[in-house]
Each structure stands twice: as C-alpha cells, then as structure tokens.
Design goal:
The complex is a heterodimer of chains A (437) and B (295).
Chain A: H1 2-8, H2 11-36, H3 40-61, H4 65-89, H5 94-118, H6 129-132, H7 140-159, H8 161-169, H9 171-176, H10 181-220, H11 226-250, H12 256-274, H13 280-312, H14 322-329, H15 333-345, E1 349-352, E2 355-358, H16 360-381, H17 383-386, H18 389-394, H19 401-404, H20 408-413, H21 416-419, H22 422-436
Antiparallel strand pairs in A: 1-2
Chain B: H1 2-27, H2 31-52, H3 58-80, H4 85-107, H5 115-120, E1 130-133, E2 136-140, H6 141-159, H7 161-169, H8 171-176, H9 181-203, H10 205-222, H11 226-251, H12 255-273, H13 279-294
Antiparallel strand pairs in B: 1-2
Helix pairs in contact in B: 1-6, 1-9, 1-10, 1-11, 2-3, 2-4, 2-9, 2-10, 3-4, 3-9, 6-9, 9-10, 10-11, 10-12, 11-12
Classes of the chains: A mainly alpha (437), B mainly alpha (295).
C-alpha cells in the first residue's frame, strides 16, 4: 500500500496521467461530433497528415514546439481540404479519397523524416517519436499545453454546441436558417486538428484515430442525446487515458499509447456486449422474447382456427392431442414444447388427461389475436380506403380488436364467419366445462 | 548495378501486385478496409513470430491472412451491430494494431522486428537477404515471396474475373445469379492480407496502403473499363516505384516514402489533366459543350 502511494505520488507519473486524461477528455468530446458527422476516418487521415507538417516545421524553424505544432496544423487542415476536393471534384469516393490523402501525406512525411535524420540537423533526435508518441516523457510544460488546448476545445464545444448539433444532424436546415456552414465546417475541422496536434506527441499519429473514434462509439451505446454523449465520451476518453498511463508505467516496457487504446477498446467491448437497449446481449434477449411472443400467438391462432372449423362441422370438442398440435403447427418439437409451457405459465392453456385445452382467458385472447390478424388483412387490402395500417396501429385503435369491429367499413368487409366467434367463445366455455365434467 | 536491379524488380512487383488487387478495393468502396488490414498485419506477423520464433517462412503469410480475415470479420460484425462503417474500421484496426505493438515491445524487443521496420520497410537491405537453392544463389528472398503472391493474386483474378467483376459492380445481381458474394469478399480480403505482408519488406505495411489505393484511383480517373483499369493501375504503380526509387536515390531519403509520394504526384496529374475526369480539361470540355448552345 505504502509502495503504491509512493508510486502514485511520483511527479512524473502524475504528469503523464494528467496529460493522458486531459487528452482523452478533449478528444472524446470532439470525437463525438466527428463520429456523428460520419467523418471518423478523416481524423485518422489528419493525424497521419500531421507528420510532414511536423518535419516541415522542424526544417524551417528548428525544434520549437510551436513550429512543430503549427506545421502539423497546417498540413492537417490541408489534408481535410484535399480530401474534400478529391471527393467533390472527381468520381472518387470518400473512402478512397481518405486513403489517398492519408498514405501520400504520410509517405511524404517519411521522406522528410529521413531527410532530417540523414541530414546534419542539430537536435534532430526524437522527431520520429511522433509516429508512436512518447507519453512517458510528458513533462510539466507539455501538460500545460494539453490543459490549454483541452480548455479551448471544451469552451468551443460548449459555445457552439447548438450550431454544431444542427450542422451534424441537418446541414441543409442549418444553412436554410442562415447559419454560416462554411465557418462551422472549418471550426469543426480546426477542433479536430487541435486535438490531433496536441495528441500525437502522446500517442503518436497512428493511434490518434483511436482516441477520436473509440470513446465516442462507446458513449453512443448508452445514450441518444448528443449532449450526454459528448460528456460521456469525454469521461470515457479521460478515464482510458489515466488508466492506460497508469498500467503502462506499472509494467516496464509497455508502450503508453497502445495501452491507452486497448483500455478504451475494453470500455467499448463492455458497452458493445452489455449496454441496455443497444448492447448485443440485450438485443439477443429482446429477439428471443419477440420470437417467443410470435410463437405464442401462432399456437393460439392455430388452435383457434381449428376450433372454428370443428364448430362449423358440428364437432364441439375443445381438446387437442399433442400430436394434433404438432401436425397443425408444424413447429419443431422443442419449439412447440417451449411454447406450450409459456402459454400454460400465462394461464392461457391447460392440460386435461394428457390433452390440451384453451382456458377461458386463453380463448378470449386467441379470439382477439385472430381477429386482429383478419382485420389487418382486410385493412391492408383496402389500405387506400381505410388509411395506413401503420397509423392505425400507432393510434392505438387496435388495442382492442373487438372495438375496431365497430368501424362500419371493417365490419362490412369481414365475412360473418370471420367475426363470428364471440358466440362461439361463449359456447366453447360451456363445452370446456362439459368436457371437464 | 545488380543491387539496383533487384530493388527495382522487387518494388515494381510489389507495386503491380498492389495495383491489381487494389483496383477491386477502390471499386467496392472499401479502400479503408485495406488501410485497416495493412495495420493489423503487424499482429499477424508478431503472432507468427511468437509461435515459430523466426521471421521467415510461410507462417508469416498464414498469420497475416488469419489476422486480415479476422479484421474484416470484426469490422463486419460491428457494422451489422449498427456501428457506423468508418468508425467500425477505426475501432478494429487501432485496437488490433495496439495489441500488436504491445506484444512486440513485451516479447520481441530483441529481435529484428522493430515496429519502424514493419511500418516503413527497408527495401535497401532486401537484396542482401538472399536464399540458395541446391547451392545455387537465387537472389533475394523478398523477390521470390512477392513473385509468388503476385502469381497467386493474378491467377485468382483471371480465374474468377467474371465473379470479381459482378460482385464489385452489382452485388445484388451477383447474389441473384448464385455467385457466393461473401466468399468472394473474404477471398479478396485474404489476397489483400497476403499482399500486405509480402510487401512490407519492401515498402512497409503502412505505405502498402498508398500502393493499394492511389494507383487504382489514378486508373479510375483514366479509364472506364475494368480490364483496362487493372492494367493501367499496375503500370501506374510500377511507374511510381521506378520514379520513387530514383528520386530517393538522388536525395538520399526513404525509398518507400518516395514511392508513395510519386504515386501521389501521378494521381495529382490524373486528377488535374485526365481527358474525361481531370478538373482542368473537364472544365474546357464543358465550355466547349456550352459554347454552341449560347451562340
């Protein structure tokens, strides 16, 4: 414990953790805008395109932090505009445009990089650290830059939240009400560039994309609101940064950038599997529930229609053997078994002498469900006249199909046999008692 | 002199192979999946190294193919689960690449598997890494590996040309005709993976992307016919490799970087001056078309 406290209080680790957390926070917030704009990989291209800028900055001004960052910002923005130009001025698609710009800029960056390392420049060592980042070497001054840039980004996101939101979800409308679209596009691109140029020193150009994309995708699993998503994404990014930095310093030889990315990916996987509503497990359970619901209704309907036929033929038995159910429904054996059990649990079906019979409630339920299906058939054939089925069901008109029979038109379209059953139901229940007696 | 010839032969073969395979990536709008695969191939190489403890042999290709397919599969899974396509690519490749980098720095630090090498390649050393067959010197190993991959790729494309063509342009029609669209997709991804790993000796895994995407995109601007596009793409790649090599030699800089830059320059030329698509000539054509109407 003592050791841990001592370890945690080492100033170097604190700087690294603070820096990584701030970076994660800022990129998480900006990343959620970028994700919804469907430009996640543009951020990746920007990060790669920063490399030639860094080298140019170094070649022209020497190893000044500001020169390197300025160069990175310049080529990063240039890359965004190059992607837009290639995409809009030729038949080349967005993904290929991103790939072209990313690889060519990066290739040119490598050329400049070898020019620097082969040449006789002073202080050239460490330039290539930008490819993978050197989080472990973060010092106070770097963290100050990170704090400043994170603050700028958070303030910008807060101030222009409404405008950016509109730009993301409905750019045409935003233009229509007079928002400066060009300016907002440039603003968003500049925000991404700012994240990228402050981040590459920590995680490097290649993994910078992960900090923009992964926390945002993760946050998307938990909410449908942009504001909540941005905050959540920032928190996840910050947490990934801090945890990643901590983990990589406890085990020697672990590179910080990749560990941060793996941490963020772990958060993503947890959300991907377990998030309510969108998580895979939740959706699998939902699908299973729906399937069972459909099967239940199917069995009830099948039994009900068979009863109708018997009734028309003058047979009054309400009992079904297991075999009969199998033949009528053609369900696989265990599917049928499950459905029977589910219906018995709900009190819609009972068993007497090894035979199955609908209970009173079951019969009423089966009647409603069959009637609903018949009304739907009629409704869909006469949709032009009766209006859209979707609307009718959305209005809740169909909760009680029996009430819907009051609609005169529907009433006249259904044949007598199709809507008959109420009387049958009454008779049925008396038969049921007779059977049991 | 022989040294230079080998380098030119290797880089031209890499460029031609990438150009041929890349054509279908550009047409299918999955160029960025190639970017993802070229990153994650690192994990396949590290995995194969951890199993075999060498950096040679077919295990590298198998490892790369497995990881490449896994990458494609994961992207597909996320895509089906509702993650936006580009974000799915981003999440998958960054995480697998990170795992690869972590494994390298934990277990493979002392061997010749530094990440810089995998990413940027080092073609200038490739000719020294020769192999012998029955005591006869056969030239650089990299050459034979990439030649084998070139032949495999070319044979598959010639053999399944019709299938590749239909699935690229109209997957729905292909499915209706009974062509296994998914199988063809994964076959293509396997080809991309082994091409990437065979090329990384020459140009590095990342700059493979440049050769996979840029020459086909250039060819896309110059022709409207698939067979012609494949040939133009391969030739553009070779031209980029040759000019890139001599530029690099002249300025004493990275060969791989120069090849990528040369490919970019060729693309820019096509983008500006392509007879049918270039933004400069296209404008003139429009003026020409508009002139009689206005007079």
């Amino acid at each position: 414990m003592q050791e841990w406290l001592q370890f945690l209080s080492s100033p170097n680790l604190q700087w690294v953790m603070a820096g990584a957390a701030l970076l994660g926070l800022a990129s998480g917030v900006v990343g959620s805008f970028v994700l919804l704009r469907k430009e996640s990989l543009v951020g990746d291209a920007m990060a790669h395109a920063a490399l030639p800028g860094i080298c140019l900055g170094f070649l022209v001004f020497g190893r000044e932090t500001l020169a390197l960052m300025g160069g990175a910002a310049l080529t990063g923005l240039l890359a965004v505009y190059a992607i837009r130009a290639v995409h809009s001025q030729s038949k080349i698609k967005q993904d290929a445009a991103i790939g072209i710009v990313l690889s060519v800029f990066f290739g040119f960056g490598i050329v400049l990089l070898t020019m620097i390392t082969n040449g006789s420049y002073s202080q050239s060592s460490g330039i290539d650290e930008f490819i993978f980042g050197q989080a472990a070497s973060l010092v106070g001054a770097d963290v100050q830059i990170l704090i400043a840039s994170a603050l700028v980004l958070l303030i910008l996101s807060f101030l222009f939240f409404k405008e950016l939101k509109l730009l993301i979800f409905d750019p045409l409308f935003a233009g229509g009400i007079g928002l400066p679209i060009r300016f907002l596009n440039a603003l968003l691109s500049s925000m991404v560039v700012l994240v990228v140029i402050t981040g590459i020193q920590t995680v490097g150009v290649i993994l910078m994309a992960a900090l923009l994309i992964t926390p945002a995708v993760t946050a998307r699993y938990w909410t449908d609101r942009l504001g909540v998503m941005a905050v959540l994404s920032g928190l996840i990014g910050g947490l990934s940064g801090a945890v990643g930095a901590l983990l990589s310093s406890t085990i020697s030889g672990l590179p910080t950038g990749p560990v941060i990315v793996v941490t963020a990916t772990a958060f993503f996987l947890i959300s991907f599997l377990f998030a309510p509503q969108r998580g895979i497990l939740f959706r699998m359970m939902e699908t299973r529930k729906n399937t069972q619901f459909v099967l239940n209704n199917f069995l009830l309907d099948t039994m009900y229609e068979k009863l109708e036929k018997r009734y028309a033929a003058g047979q009054y038995s309400a009992l079904f053997s297991r075999r009969e159910l199998e033949e009528q429904t053609r369900l696989p054996r265990n599917g049928l078994e499950k459905t029977i059990q589910a219906l018995q649990k709900q009190g819609l079906l009972t068993q007497t002498d090894g035979k199955y019979v609908l209970t009173g409630t079951g019969l009423a339920y089966a009647y409603d469900s069959s009637l609903l299906r018949r009304i739907q058939d009629i409704h869909l054939t006469h949709e032009a006249e009766l209006g859209s089925w979707k609307e009718a069901s959305a209005n809740g008109d169909l909760r009680k199909p029996r009430d819907y029979l009051m609609n005169e038109r529907i009433h006249s379209l259904l044949t007598a046999e199709q809507k008959l059953p109420v009387s049958l139901a009454i008779k049925q229940s008396s038969i049921e008692y007779a059977d049991q007696a | 002199m022989l040294y230079e010839l080998w380098i030119l032969a290797i880089s031209s073969l890499v460029a031609a192979t990438c150009g041929i395979v890349g054509t279908f990536l550009v047409l299918r709008r999955i160029a960025m999946v190639a970017d993802a695969i070229s990153h994650t191939v690192l994990l396949g190489i590290v995995g194969a190294f951890l199993v075999s403890q060498t950096l040679e042999g077919p295990l590298m290709l198998i490892g790369a193919a497995v990881v490449g397919l896994a990458t494609t599969y994961f992207i597909q899974v996320l895509d089906n689960a509702g993650v936006p396509a580009d974000a799915a690519i981003g999440v998958v490749f960054t995480s697998l690449f990170s795992v690869g980098v972590i494994l390298v720095s934990l277990y493979a630090r002392d061997v010749h598997l530094d990440v810089d090498h995998v990413l940027m390649g080092d073609i200038s050393f490739a000719p020294f890494h020769t192999i012998e067959w029955n005591g006869i010197p056969m030239g650089p190993q990299a050459f034979w590996v990439i030649l084998a991959v070139f032949i495999i790729d070319l044979a598959l494309i010639l053999l399944l040309y019709k299938e590749f063509k239909i699935t690229s342009f109209d997957p729905a029609l292909a499915a209706a005709l009974g062509i296994p669209v998914t199988l063809i997709h994964y076959l293509l991804m396997t080809m991309v993976s082994i091409t990437a790993v065979a090329s990384f000796d020459a140009v590095g895994a990342i700059l493979v992307v440049a050769l996979l995407i840029v020459p086909p995109a250039t060819a896309y601007l110059l022709t409207e016919k698939l067979s012609r596009m494949i040939i133009v793409s391969a030739l553009t790649g070779v031209a980029a490799a040759v000019t890139g090599y001599y530029t690099a030699k002249y300025f004493n800089v990275s060969i791989a970087g120069c090849i990528a830059s040369a490919a970019g320059a060729l693309f820019l030329i096509a983008f500006l001056f392509s007879p049918s698509q270039g933004i400069l000539l296209r404008g003139r054509q429009r003026k020409k078309a508009a002139a009689p109407a206005s007079s």
